[in-house]
UniProtKB/TrEMBL annotation:
It comes from the Bacteria. SUPFAM superfamilies: Bet v1-like. It comes from Nonomuraea coxensis DSM 45129. This is Polyketide cyclase / dehydrase and lipid transport.
């Protein structure tokens, strides 16, 4: 079960990547994040563990399972017996802009139940996060 959202961003892909991969600063610009904290002393990258707190949801620890610098990362967590993978992708687009795709994929026996209980909120949060990233990047000067 996957939900995806895609937005065009009128900012260079490099700026969008820097903003998106600086995960501890997400609460500064998106209302769907209360706290994002690295749990390791290492820089954010493959294998990093991150604690995410969101309004109305329990705090979850995520692990970065894939990272392509400048382009994408995926982190995963397990909640209620369901593996949840969140994908974050930036692509260069025409006229110096970028495209962002965010996704949530749920796997496991109880994935349909979790989707039924939290699907609307998940879709709203993912869409809000994509639009918040867009606004943040379009306001910041490149460089």
């Amino acid at each position: 079960m996957t939900f995806r959202t895609r937005v065009a961003v009128d900012a260079p892909a490099e700026l969008v990547w820097r903003t998106m991969s600086d995960v501890t600063r997400w609460p500064e610009f998106t209302p769907t994040m209360t706290s994002v904290r690295l749990l390791d002393d290492e820089p954010f990258g493959a294998g990093s563990r991150v604690r995410v707190e969101q309004p109305g949801l329990p705090a979850l620890d995520w692990m970065v399972t894939a990272l392509t610098p400048g382009r994408s990362f995926v982190w995963e967590t397990v909640a209620a017996g369901v593996t949840i993978a969140a994908g974050h992708v930036v692509e260069a687009a025409g006229r110096g802009g970028a495209a962002v795709e965010l996704s949530i994929t749920r796997r496991g026996l109880l994935a349909p139940v979790l989707a039924l209980l939290t699907g609307a909120r998940t879709r709203r949060y993912v869409r809000t996060e994509a639009l918040s990233l867009k606004r943040r990047c379009e306001r910041e000067p490149p460089g």
